[in-house]
Design brief:
Elements lengths: L2 H4 L7 H6 L3 E5 L2 E6 L3 H10 L2 E4 L4 E6 L3 H8 L12 E7 L5 E11 L2 E6 L4 H12 L5 E4 L5 E6 L3 H5 L15 E6 L2 E6 L8 E6 L4 H11 L6 E2 L2 H10 L34 H10 L3 E8 L10 E4 L2 E10 L6 E8 L8 E6 L2 E7 L12
Parallel strand pairs: 3-13
Antiparallel strand pairs: 1-2, 3-9, 4-7, 4-8, 5-6, 6-7, 9-12, 10-11, 11-12, 14-17, 14-19, 15-16, 15-18, 16-17, 18-19
Helix pairs in contact: 3-8
Length: about 375
């Protein structure tokens, strides 16, 4: 093993990934499984049955104290005041320029008790940002990332697999809701969330319990052909569902309004970091916006590929051959005048101009009755 590889962080499930023959890659400073049996096979398992992911590299911050709500209202864009105990919402932390520090989940665990879940590669930066904002608030902020492992059981059969392993009333947990209970005897936050566009659960557990639970869930799902799934399938699944990926579709150069995530910004809740910049941008109007597209010609549009449309240049942020839809899809920042559904433009595929068309997103939406 090279020195660089040896320096990568590992989750508590690293040995299991190697046992299962996973292809390991560097992801945000973590040695993570990109695939086991193949990205398409794992993708299909999640869409049709279920897949089990290790996402223990994610960062977790605990926030407690009488000033917790006021602090989080200042730190994040969504309205934490409307978040009930036992519910989760998607949000953003912004720079004073209104651009992304990160996107995150906010869990309300009690009256003055919250859990923030941030992207792995951003954890140190995010904590430093949050700690700076916390000054002057009666709040205790703690980076508890090393105290959580995170398993994601995703797919239409996820509830069937998990139900015998917990006393929690899984059907009663609403989308973006959670309960605190046990899974196979291990204490867990059981959250009906995910990054795939499918039904499923994310399980926050003690790192010491994670290997046993991972194996037991795999065993419990054997009858329906549950597959362990890696970051490759996670990426194709999230893009079909049009879920943003930091470092691709969002970063510290774009705002939520430009990223088509204005719904996580609640301007009426009061002051928050970046609010003034967003107010100016709303008043002045957007110059560009993130739009979904499909290629009309053969090829794959990758991150960084240039686009050309009637109003000017743009750039692709994510692109894949969609396993579910059987076509090449992607996201791109286009001039605002060229983001209407049906607008055609071209993508420079290494010197070849491929035709593309703006389409409605998400590209894939599960059947709600399934």
């Amino acid at each position: 093993m090279t020195t660089a590889a040896a320096a990568l962080k590992r989750t508590p499930l690293y040995d299991i990934h190697r046992e299962l023959g996973a292809k390991m890659v560097d992801f945000g400073g973590w040695e993570m499984p990109v695939e086991y049996s193949g990205i398409r096979e794992e993708h299909r398992a999640v869409r049709e049955r279920a897949g089990l992911f290790d996402v223990s590299h994610m960062g977790e911050f605990e926030v407690e104290g009488k000033g917790a709500l006021a602090f989080l209202q200042k730190l994040t864009t969504n309205d934490v005041g409307k978040l009930a105990v036992g519910r989760v919402h998607y949000s953003a932390m912004l720079t004073p320029r209104g651009t992304f520090v990160d996107d995150l989940l906010v869990y309300r665990r009690g009256e003055d008790r919250y859990l923030l879940v941030v992207n792995a590669g951003n954890t140190p930066k995010d904590f430093a940002h949050a700690r700076e904002i916390a000054k002057g608030y009666d709040v205790r902020l703690r980076d508890a990332s090393d105290e959580y492992a995170l398993l994601a059981l995703q797919g239409p059969k996820a509830e069937e697999i998990l139900a015998p392993m917990t006393e929690a009333d899984l059907p009663a947990i609403p989308y973006y809701g959670f309960v605190e209970g046990t899974v196979s005897g291990a204490r867990a936050i059981i959250s009906r969330t995910g990054y795939t566009g499918e039904k499923g659960f994310e399980l926050y557990v003690d790192p010491a319990d994670a290997p046993r639970l991972f194996r037991e869930i795999l065993d419990a799902g054997r009858a329906i052909d549950l597959l362990p799934a890696g970051l490759g399938a996670r990426d194709t699944l999230r893009l079909e569902a049009k879920m943003a990926l930091y470092g691709h579709d969002i970063d510290d150069t774009v705002t939520p309004l430009e990223a088509d995530l204005g719904w996580v910004v609640k301007m009426g809740k009061g002051d928050f970091e970046g609010r003034e910049a967003l107010a100016r941008q709303k008043e002045q109007g957007l110059a560009k916006k993130l739009a979904g597209f499909e290629l009309l010609d053969r090829g794959i549009a990758r991150q960084g590929y240039a686009t050309a449309s009637a109003s000017g240049a743009g750039v692709v942020t994510s692109g894949i051959p969609s396993p579910t839809l059987g076509k090449s899809i992607g996201l791109a920042y286009l001039p605002i005048a060229d983001t209407a559904i049906g607008t055609e433009f071209t993508v420079d595929l290494r010197g070849r101009a491929a035709r593309a068309r703006v389409v409605e997103t998400p590209f894939y939406k599960r059947e709600r009755a399934s």
